[in-house]
Design goal:
Elements: H1 2-29, H2 44-53, H3 60-84, H4 104-139, H5 144-158, H6 161-175, H7 192-229, H8 232-239, H9 244-273, H10 276-282, H11 287-296, H12 300-328
Helix pairs in contact: 1-12, 4-5, 4-7, 4-9, 5-7, 6-7, 6-10, 7-9, 9-12, 10-11, 11-12
């Protein structure tokens, strides 16, 4: 297993470098100018000095290599300095956002808690709901529970989150006035009243995202359970006198989780990336909204760093899913 993991990591390094180059070139060739919002009254020579101050006066390959150095060397050194109180990165130029003129990773660190609270909790709720629904729906195929679960899953998966989010706002925020329509990112939980206010403002975005995630995962769980319930080993286990609970939860569930692990693991990077549309609908000041604002303002360092972090997360969680295969199914070997 260790050899397989090391081999995958060594393969991931050139893959990620190629991905970063493709993202950089796409941003380089995309229309738009980071100085497009500068007033026309600004003299051309001043505008050119502003461009050089942003590092845009250098060739693209020089800026790309500089960004790689900052991402893989200077920023990690800065984290080490923060943890240990050293000064290894003193005087080194960090990745700076064109929009805020602040270090990109500092801005990302400010937005991550909001994203994890809303998107992360909704994904956890979706998984915890989807797996039991998928198990019961498969075991009681064509029952009223299965029919209801199928209907809700199809509705949740077919309706986009921007539609269900707006519907929730109209019904529960405008008409019933149960929940606030705008997420207050400045809220600090200090007592029971503020905790209840935090729960109320998280209710709608978490429900919208959990419904969407649970709809997809429950369908995979149901299909995988149905495929395993008809296998010979299940009939053998029942013939040996094992209880139905043991057969379903110990034997069938373990094998059924193997394909579902892929869906769950590959969905986790989206948690860190933020739900772009849902964060826009409910005004959650997370990473998704940060990416949208960076794209609108042509903030190349921010867009490049965020998208590359998402690519790293996808590679990492894909490796985790492959390793979990061997844990769930001992027949799988990585020799």
């Amino acid at each position: 297993m260790l050899t397989y993991a090391l081999r995958r990591i060594m393969l991931a390094i050139p893959t990620l470098l190629f991905i970063s180059l493709v993202i950089f070139l796409l941003l380089e060739l995309s229309p738009g100018d980071p100085l497009g919002d500068v007033p026309l009254t600004v003299p051309p020579e001043v505008k050119e000095k502003m461009r050089e101050a942003l590092g845009l006066g250098q060739a693209w390959y020089i800026r790309y290599v500089l960004w790689l150095k900052q991402f893989f060397w200077i920023e990690p050194l800065h984290w080490v300095d923060q943890l240990l109180g050293t000064d290894f990165s003193r005087g080194a130029q960090r990745i700076i956002s064109f929009q805020s003129r602040s270090p990109v990773f500092d801005v990302i660190a400010e937005r991550i808690p909001q994203t994890l609270k809303v998107v992360g909790f909704s994904y956890l709720v979706g998984v915890l709901i989807a797996i039991p629904i998928g198990i019961i729906s498969a075991y009681k195929q064509y029952s009223w529970f299965d029919q209801l679960g199928t209907f809700i899953s199809m509705v949740g998966f077919s309706m986009p989150t921007f539609f269900t989010g707006v519907v929730f706002i109209i019904v529960f925020a405008v008409n019933l006035q149960w929940f606030p329509s705008i997420y207050d990112t400045t809220l600090k939980v200090t007592d029971w009243a503020s905790f209840w206010q935090q729960v109320r403002q998280m209710a709608m975005p978490v429900t919208v995202l959990a419904l969407y995630n649970a709809a997809q995962i429950s369908r995979f769980m149901r299909a995988s359970m149905l495929d395993n319930l008809g296998q010979d080993y299940v009939r053998t286990a029942r013939a040996k006198g094992l209880s139905e609970r043991t057969v379903v939860l110990k034997h069938v569930l373990r094998n059924s989780l193997i394909p579902v692990v892929t869906v769950i693991a590959l969905g986790l990077p989206a948690v860190f990336g933020g739900a772009i549309i849902t964060e826009q609908v409910f005004k959650v000041n997370g990473l998704g909204q940060l990416l949208i604002s960076a794209i609108h303002s042509n903030d190349i360092p921010m867009v490049l760093t965020l998208t590359f972090i998402f690519a790293i997360l996808i590679v990492v969680f894909t490796l985790i899913a492959d390793i979990l295969y061997g844990i769930l199914d001992p027949r799988i070997r990585y020799d």
